[in-house]
Specification:
Order of helices and strands: HHHHEEHHH
Number of domains: 2
Radius of gyration: 26 Å
Shape: flat
Number of strands: 2
Strand order of the largest sheet: 1-2
Largest sheet: 2 strands, antiparallel
Number of helices: 7
Oligomer: single chain
Helix content: over 70%
Distance between the termini: 46 Å
Length: 197
């Protein structure tokens, strides 16, 4: 609860303990505070209930958009040869990198603000609102959820425009490999520092 409401509640409780010793003006203020506190508590309870209820209509719209995108790519994309193991590895790496960018990194924070509460650059940002806004907020804060959409986008790029799609996929996959190498290097440096101590 907000600290100002906590202070109002304390003042209200002090005032109503002995109304005969309390001036009328304070009793009126206490009554106003009581109503404010009740309203604030009811609002917090309503928000809490909305946060626990899944936005099924929003999920349906997001799922429908995904299905429509799959149908659109299948209908308008060029036929491509069966992907090799290398192609699948590159797409997997590119999907990983794209999902991290959208849901965790600062670069992707440009997408998140309308759909999350608090600081959009924080990896701990929570979905905001309800309905479609909340469903998209849950999507853009979940690396696995974004990964599915990223995979569709990358496969679509490879299908609709093979040369630029391949370039994009390769670049993102190399970026993912770089992330793993940087993380591994950091672990090795920390382990060496620990041994030195």
């Amino acid at each position: 609860m907000d600290s100002r409401f906590a202070k109002r509640r304390q003042r209200y409780l002090r005032t109503v303990r002995d109304p005969r010793r309390t001036p009328a003006a304070e009793l009126i203020t206490a009554d106003i505070d009581r109503r404010s506190i009740s309203h604030a508590e009811a609002e917090a309870e309503r928000k809490g209930a909305a946060a626990t209820r899944p936005p099924l209509a929003g999920y349906s719209l997001v799922g429908g958009a995904f299905g429509a995108a799959v149908v659109g790519v299948a209908a308008f994309g060029r036929p491509v040869e069966r992907p090799s193991a290398l192609d699948l590895g590159l797409i997997a790496g590119a999907t990983f990198k794209t999902a991290r960018i959208v849901s965790r990194e600062r670069l992707g924070s440009v997408v998140r603000p309308p759909f999350v509460e608090g600081e959009a650059t924080s990896p701990d940002a929570a979905p905001a609102g309800d309905g479609l806004q909340r469903a998209i907020g849950e999507l853009v804060t979940c690396t696995r959820c974004v990964g599915t959409w990223a995979a569709l986008g990358l496969v679509a790029a490879r299908t609709v425009a093979p040369r630029p799609g391949r370039l994009l996929i390769t670049t993102l996959a190399v970026g993912a490999a770089n992330d793993f190498m940087q993380a591994g290097f950091t672990v090795l440096c920390n382990a060496a520092e620990e041994r030195r101590r």
